[in-house]
Design a protein that fits this description.
Rossmann fold, 232 residues, globular, 7 strands, seven-stranded mixed beta sheet, single chain, alpha/beta, 21% strand
């Protein structure tokens, strides 16, 4: 347990290049299904929707898993969404469970998004960017498929929170997600997004503070989730 916590903590600073594909099987699908149905995840989705200033017709949900989160996003954005995921098991479940949905679920290889340039009004990326093998290639693809004037919404664990929550990890029950490669700081992702042509890049922070910071009452930088809203 202590070894896993230390290994997880290192990802605040060091990108984990080890093989990860074997993590994304049926057990992971079940885990993410439970998470995407939770009040916690839905609060994140509502936060994004409430901070969006545009009306959208077509969205892309990258890392849709079994579709539960995608369906909820579709309802709060009042838009059709195409969900894509690298897990064949997850995509099959999404197409089985939501066969009568207006949304679509498609398998992709984790590298090339299987849609033409400038297709989507918005792209959502919930708890995915910390898992990708090449951050540059991934952001380049996100930028390619968003139409000019469209929006990108990213939600990911906040590296600042992870840093200060280390002590909590030794006190409380803690189960690191070993499939994660990197916990990102806001300035890191902002730099990547701007370098690939996104504008109006804004970081916000959402969720709980680590126990060690609750009495210090810092600005929101220490909160559990990093939320980025960007325009193309």
């Amino acid at each position: 347990m202590i070894r896993d916590i230390i290994k997880d903590f290192k990802k605040v600073f060091i990108f984990d290049k080890s093989e990860k594909k074997f993590y994304y099987g049926k057990d992971y699908t079940k885990k993410i299904k439970k998470f995407s149905q939770s009040v916690r995840w839905r609060n994140e989705a509502n936060y994004i929707a409430n901070h969006s200033k545009s009306n959208f017709d077509l969205g892309l949900d990258v890392g849709c898993n079994a579709g539960y989160g995608t369906e909820y996003l579709s309802s709060v954005f009042e838009s059709k969404i195409i969900g894509i995921d690298i897990s064949n098991d997850a995509v099959n479940k999404a197409n089985t469970i939501f066969f009568d949905s207006r949304n679509e679920y498609v398998l992709y290889d984790g590298a090339k998004i299987p849609y033409p340039d400038n297709k989507f009004d918005f792209v959502t990326c919930f708890h995915v960017i910390g898992h990708v093998g090449s951050i540059s290639d991934f952001i380049s693809e996100l930028h390619r498929v968003v139409r000019p004037g469209g929006s990108l919404f990213i939600v990911t664990p906040n590296a600042t929170y992870k840093f200060f929550a280390l002590l909590d990890s030794f006190i409380n029950k803690y189960a690191p997600d070993l499939s994660i490669r990197k916990y990102w700081f806001s300035f890191e992702l902002e730099k990547y997004l701007k370098s690939f042509g996104f504008s109006e890049v804004k970081s916000e922070f959402f969720g709980d503070l680590p126990r060690i910071l609750k009495h210090a009452r810092p600005k929101n930088f220490g909160r559990e989730r990093l939320v980025i809203i960007a325009r193309k």
